[in-house]
Request: fold
Amino acid sequence: MITSKSVTRACVIDGRGRGGGGAESGSGGARSRAALRPQPPAMADAPPEVLELNVGGVHYATTRDTLLREPDSLPAAALNDPDHPRDARGRIFFDRDGVLFRYVLDYLRDGGLVLPECFREHKRLAREAKHYRLAGLEHAVRDADPRPPNRERGCITVGYRGSFAFGRDGLADVKFRKLSRILVCGKVTLCRDVFGETLNESRDPDHGLADRYTSRFFLKHSFIEQAFDMLQEQGFKLTASCGSGTAGGAAELKPGVDSEENRWNHYNEFVFVRE
Reply:
């Protein structure tokens, strides 16, 4: 039998149920509203901070900020140009010297240039810097070049004859070497440029001709180390050397020569090159 109390009780129960269902609907609505909020971009869609480059087949990794360090440079322009060439893996491609690019990248990272002591490709690196539109790097490379732009290239050969001065105990007591003369062979202009006033040209018959070669110059001093220092200061590098020696018997000594040291003569040559 249905009474007013039972109807009221049923309505209360149904109202609670609807309230629970409304709460569920409310939570579902909250989730729907959260889904409509703008979400941060996924990592795959965000621009990468670490970039890979392909320079003449040599691969490099750097950051976006490094490539943008010089806004007017070619690397910065390539980064902002969607039509710039890329390789099969999507790396920015430069058809240039891949080995020398390491110095270009170092300059973009640090703003300075540090080259190894044996570096000898200043002209090539300056050309790369000009191509990448890095004027600061180009000037730094030219300032770091130890060779003046108009300095003459060439080869100079230095040779000397000498003997060893013995002590009282003969060979077991060699005191020092004695150099009779240091010979200089090469182009006349180069020899004069390196040795200056220390060069003796008295044995050279063609004093008036400068654009020629000679093997008749010798130095006014007998210090081979001084000659080497002068060559090094002018940018020459030792590339080859050779030596020979003779040991004669007592019967071979000339009349009037009684010095034991004349039995042990030697001749040495050193080839220096400036590029």
